[in-house]
Design goal:
With 399 residues, this protein is an alpha+beta fold. The protein folds into 2 domains: 290 residues, no CATH class; 95 residues, no CATH class. The chain has 9 helices and 26 strands. Strands 14, 15, 16, 17, 18, 19, 20 and 21 form an 8-stranded antiparallel sheet that branches. Strand 10 and strand 11 form a beta hairpin. The two termini are 13 Å apart.
Amino acid sequence: MLRFASASNGLVETSQAAAAAVKAAAPAGDAAACKLVVFHVTMGHDHRALLATLRKACPSARIVGCTCAGIIGREGADESPRALGLMLVWGEAADLSLAYTERLDGNNARTAAATLAGDIVKKHGKPRFCMLLASGIDVDADGCIEGIESAFGKDVTVFGGTSADTMQGIASYQFLDDSIHEHAAVLVGFHDASLRVDTRASHGFVPAPVQLEVTRAEGNRIFTISGEPAWTAYARGLGLPPSATPGDTIPPGAVGVALSPAEIEEYGDSHLLRVITKKLGDGSMLMPVRCATGTKLTLMRRDEERIFRNLDVMMKQFQRDLAGRRVQAVFHADCGARGRLTLDRVSKTDIVRAMQEPLMQGNQCPPWLGMYGFGELARLLGKNTFHNYTTALYVISRG
């Protein structure tokens, strides 16, 4: 059976931070026996030194991770330039599987993801659930979901998130064992039959009276809105000049796609949010999912009271779903714009506490690894779904 432990810190020196996190997660000194290390790290750390230290401490483990705008651990949230969070996993080799590709983007997402999932099925069989880590800037997440489901089926939950930088939309990184990549993707399968994962996502944005119609798009690239360069129209809708950068638009610039009545009833919000991750030289822009010509995008505005209310509803749903089960670990993907770019420090601390307290075992927070990234994967109305601007929790439990 799989066993989990986590730790996080904001130590400045990279090797010291990595060694301290491993020691805190495995105080009994059994880190060398762990089978998997999953980590999230901010951009200021020396990533090569980090990988080298993790390899020394966990010589037999597969190591996967990605950059982010901040981490969330059982110790709280940390968006400093040098923040690190990790999860160690022990168990039988048959309980875990891993596949990766060095290139997954908006052009090949479905085929690359199908290959990843197909490799896992071929070597290890169908997993109970799986975690995907991929690039947050140029991914087509809907294509990823379709590709994974083509091999696993739609009943296997896909959770995880996409990597981020300092919310500038310039470059983010993914890690596999001893190597660093910019456009890679990693799929981790969990095969332990005693485990279950429950996933939910929540935002709390409301529609603004501005709607944008996509008049030309290919894949996840939008060329024109209402017949003019997409970035110009999008920036103007936000009250910004065409010279604005993604870093200027990501905090206030959520766009929404209307949901069905059944989806609204479960989700608690009327729209699925999307982030614009990159501005291209010809005035086009990228979304992390496909966007068809004719799509109507509604500009959305943050409602802080609604964010807290929706989160409270989500945690009550988790408590209901987990009745009689013991939480083993929580993976967590949060939108970078819900960190310091959206909420002040007090609100951010409150929102993390509101997530963790309902899942505590006695007075102990379960192993917890979260990141502020560019996108989140969680089920909606029973379907694997990609989200933006949400808090998405993935609660692994045992009956």
